[in-house]
Amino acid sequence: EKVPVSMEINGKAYNLSLEPRVTLLDLLREQLNLTGTKKGCDHGQCGACTVHVNGQRINSCLTLAVMQEGKKITTIEGLAIGEQLHPVQEAFIKHDGFQCGYCTPGQIMSAVACLREGHAGSAAEIREFMSGNICRCGAYDNIVDAIMEVKQ
Ligand code: FES
Question: TM spans, by residue (predicted)?
Fold first, then answer.
């Protein structure tokens, strides 16, 4: 049986009717076509699915969509303002913070949270905060450089 759920995603109001078992990740990707958020492991191990809920980062694969009633969700699609990329997006480009790019939306959503929450004091602190976001290409050094630059 479907459940009515209202939430705001990237500034837009959605009134949805959802099966209770649908994850926030599957809602975004499969029902709303917001495919910038990636599915890597689908069980909380890789960080590719990272989004913000009321400003806090979460793994959207571990979160049910019906739990988001009244919440504000931000995905990678919601960071840029028109053609103007978010400073973290600009820094990832400048510092080659990706190779294949699959983990990048999740990395960037975590990086924004890292800076906003004040966990970018040192390279070690950034690495610790970002440790839930796995990059198979090994772009970690460049990701840290990108975050350090935005901090300055
Ligand atoms: Fe959610 Fe990997 S897809 S943590």
Answer: none
Residues 6+ apart with CB under 8 A from 11: 78
Overall pTM surpassing 0.95 (yes/no): yes
pLDDT along the chain (152 residues), means of 10: 97 98 98 98 98 98 98 98 96 96 98 98 98 95 97 78
State the distance from the centre of ligand 1 to the C-alpha of 37, rounded, in angstroms. Answer: 10
**What would be the CATH architecture of the domain defined by 87-151?**
Orthogonal Bundle (1.10)
> What are the structural domain ranges in the chain?
3-77, 87-151
Supply the pLDDT for residue 65.
Answer: 98
**Tokens for 77?**
């699609």
From the alpha carbon of 41, which atom of ligand 1 is closest? Answer: 2
Which residues, including other chains, have CB under 8 Å from residue 83's CB and lie 6 or more apart? none
CATH topology for 3-77 is Ubiquitin-like (UB roll) (3.10.20)
Q: Read off the tokens for 127.
A: 């690495």
Tell me how far the alpha carbon of residue 130 lies from the centroid of ligand 1, in angstroms.
Answer: 14
pLDDT at residue number 139:
93
Q: How far is the CA of 44 from the centre of ligand 1 (A)?
A: 4
